[in-house]
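Title: Prediction job returns without error message
Component: structure pipeline
Severity: low
Priority: P3
Assignee: unassigned

Description:
Job completed but the reporter wants confirmation the result is attached to the right record. Sequence as submitted:
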Amino acid sequence: SSDLKNRFTICRTDLLRQMVNLFFKECGKLLPEIRAAIDQKDAPKLRRVAHSLKGSVDCFAAQASVTAALRLELMGQEGNLTGADEAYSTLSREIERLTLALEAHSH
């Protein structure tokens, strides 16, 4: 029973590490795409990419990051990018906080 419990814990830890690594890879791709969509005033792309990032951060129950991504997603959906720079700054800050927390817990 103890051996089985140890193997289960190792599997869960490995799965979490894989999820964290995938998240880091996705963020490295999606954040610049969000920035580019804002700079290009491409509302449909902003909606799509912010939605993808929102799904990634939601896996870690990071509500502040989810809320920040949702704000940008809705701006893209509505086609109104007023305040998008500020919203992006908030999202970047929240993603950085989440990244630091995940790095601390995944080693």
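Comment from assignee: result matches the submitted record. The helical segments are 2-39, 43-58, 63-78, 84-105.
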